[in-house]
Amino acid sequence: MGDRYRQRAQDAPEGRVSGRAAPSTLLLLLAYLAYLILGTGVFWMLESPAAHDSSERFQRDKWALLRNFTCLDGPALDSLIRGIIQAYQNGDVVLGNTTSMGRWEFVGSFFFSVSTITTIGYGNLSPSTMAARLFCIFFALVGIPLNLVVLNRLGHLMQQGVHRCAHKLGGTWKDPAKARWLAGSSALLTGLLLFLLLPPLLFCHMEGWSYVEGIYFAFITLSTVGFGDYVIGMDPSRKYPLWYKNTVSLWILFGMAWLALIIKLILSLLEAPQDSYSCYSHSSKGNFKQRSGRQDPDGEADPHSSQPDCYPEGPMGIVQHPEPSTPVSCCGKDS
């Protein structure tokens, strides 16, 4: 009876911490979204009037040039080309008489905010006013660390989900090793489908790209390389719905968290001399308490590793327990 109460007292803090994880994560996501909306509104107010004026001025200059020069000579053509380049850098669409999906409208400003704090930086759009440039510095200074915190939290929640699945499967099948690898493989396959294999189908439909181009854009975006050779919403001949860029922004957030988790797994495999391990102390009620550690670069483990019941961590941070060769005694009986 006394052991039962002591065990409940030990497990109580862990339960309270687990119960607070979901609300705190939700609060963090709300703060993240609020910060993005703040940046969206500021960039929209600062850049939208300037972009509108630039577009109107370019249209006036273009038609005036065409009326005055029926046969363009070299300097006039160079002037037109320079004007087109400057208009493109300002976010104007110079083909046809419509601007399609304005890049400095509210949706475009939100997508710019996302690409800024995620450090993707496609390079297809940049602030042109001095006020927006100064704000961009402070916005990125706070937003980039905030984005890293959010990605770390989302990746941790994904890892916890894999742990829970492996634990449940291991208890059902009585085969922990098989459950670990199945849970890890399922997480990898699900992430590949949701973030790398299925989104290119949407890009093919909305942008007219090939499937290979869609996969290329997906990986370059989620890895934050962001070359800028492929950017969504840039074809003036297409009509883009309002939900399109917002959905892609959400895909970027969760896809970066998943890819960061995969990169962490690859790093853990490459850093073989610094293997992680977890130690479990067995109680009389069959419960385990976890302690984690890591070997140093010389292969020497810290003092915890010299104790029994210390096992290495496998893919996705799942602990690889050895299969028991002898029955474990519990409560004075073999089980």
3D structure, described in words:
There is one protein chain. The protein is mainly alpha-helical and 335 residues long. The protein starts with a helix and ends with a strand. It has one domain (21-269): Helix Hairpins (Orthogonal Bundle), CATH 1.10.287. It is built from eight helices and five strands, in the order ααααααααβββββ. Mean pLDDT is 75; it is low at 274-278, 280-292, 294-308 and 318-335. The chain is 63% helix and 6% strand. It has a three-stranded antiparallel β-sheet with strand order 2-1-3, with no helix packed on it. The protein has a two-stranded antiparallel ribbon with strand order 4-5.
Q: What's the average pLDDT?
A: 75
Which of globular, elongated, flat, extended, rod-shaped describes the shape?
Answer: elongated
Counting DSSP E segments of at least 2 residues, the number of strands comes to 5
Bin the helical content.
55-70%
> What is the radius of gyration computed over CA atoms, rounded to a whole number of angstroms?
27 Å
CA distance, first residue to last residue: 20 Å
Feature tags:
mainly alpha, Helix Hairpins, three-stranded antiparallel beta sheet, 8 helices, about 5% strand, disordered C terminus
